[in-house]
Design brief:
Elements lengths: L1 H8 L4 H13 L6 E2 H8 L3 H13 L3 E4 L5 E4 L1 H15 L4 E8 L3 E8 L9 E8 L6 H7 L11 H19 L8 E5 L2 E5 L4 E2 L8 H17 L2 E2 L8 E4 L2 E4 L6 E2 L5 H19 L10 H10 L4
Antiparallel strand pairs: 1-3, 2-3, 4-5, 5-6, 6-8, 7-8, 9-11, 10-13, 11-12
Helix pairs in contact: 1-5, 2-3, 2-5, 8-9, 8-10
């Protein structure tokens, strides 16, 4: 739980953070980082290192083995602490609030960013920790095209790369496409502006045709930029009085991807099915998927 991480984070000292960083770096080369590598990196007395490691293990920040050799891995709580440390040092966040979303591949929290130069009011932001690889490396590898050619990777790599990909696409699309503004990215975590409105699946809009058309328009803008969300549904579209906003981008692909047509069709189909299922009678959405996809592709030429 991130609440536990925040509480423990306040108790970590520079030695703890150095140990966590040493394990993080070591995991680029070792599945379990040998104690000898940590001694070299941290330059701590063996007794101090062993004591600190025992506490980090007790607090679920580190995992350890004794056979066939003594080695250590950083756990998600420890990785969270390193990302939090970076954000706090940069002045990106000053407090963390409630958990507002959790899934197999991410945990999302409210957070607070203090105003620059102590002028103005504190700002609410979103803090997202990626969790790819936590449950199954094989599943993540199968569903992430950017991992398929890699025979070996740790969950650290999978989660960090997913966050990096999401950060990159948000920077490329904002503000031309309606996506949250990225404020910072470190390791497997992102800090973003709060998405405006409410999630589509939780909301019954008064003008479904207008909102449907706006979703399709945004898909077209994304396609025109050379990308496809590829995991779009009513669960990652926010609606508000001004329009819509798309979130959750780690599975995006380029329009040159060999399965681009299939994934574009799936995105459009998911949205169309939602509106047709939820709105009937006078509000019924009458659109042909082939016509929609043709319009999206033709928008590239305009």
């Amino acid at each position: 739980m991130i609440d536990d991480v925040v509480k423990l984070f306040r108790e970590l000292d520079s030695k703890d953070l150095r140990i966590l960083t040493g394990i993080e770096i070591g995991m680029k080369h070792f599945e379990w980082v040998p104690i000898e590598e940590l001694i070299k990196y941290t330059r701590l007395p063996v007794s101090t290192l062993e004591y600190k490691l025992s506490l980090l293990i007790k607090n679920n920040m580190v995992l350890g083995i004794k056979n066939p050799y003594e080695g250590y891995q950083i756990y998600f709580d420890g990785y969270d602490a390193l990302a939090l440390n970076a954000f706090v040092k940069r002045g990106i966040i000053s407090a963390i609030g409630d958990e507002i979303g959790v899934g197999k591949e991410s945990v999302v929290h409210e957070a607070v960013k203090e105003p620059e130069l102590a002028i103005g009011e504190a700002k609410g932001v979103i803090l997202k920790f990626h969790r790819e690889g936590r449950t199954s490396f094989k599943t993540v590898k199968r569903t992430r095209s950017h991992l398929k050619d890699r025979e070996h990777f740790s969950w650290i790599y999978a989660a960090r790369l997913a966050a990096k990909r999401e950060a990159e696409i948000l920077k490329k699309l904002y503000p031309k496409v309606s996506v949250p503004k990225l404020l910072d990215n470190n390791r497997h975590a992102l800090v973003m502006d709060v998405a405006k409105g409410t999630l589509l699946y939780k909301t019954r809009v008064l003008e479904p045709q207008w909102f449907f058309d706006e979703v399709i328009r945004q898909i077209g803008l994304i396609y025109k930029e050379g990308y496809i969300h590829s995991d779009l549904s009513e669960y990652n579209i926010f609606v508000n009085e001004d329009g819509v906003q798309f979130i959750d981008w780690p599975q995006y692909i380029e329009t040159t991807h060999p399965h681009a047509d299939e994934l574009l069709r799936r995105d459009v189909s998911n949205v169309l099915k939602h509106f047709k299922r939820k709105y009937k009678g006078n509000c019924k959405i009458e659109r042909d998927i082939e016509e929609i996809i043709s319009d999206i592709k033709n928008s590239v030429q305009s």
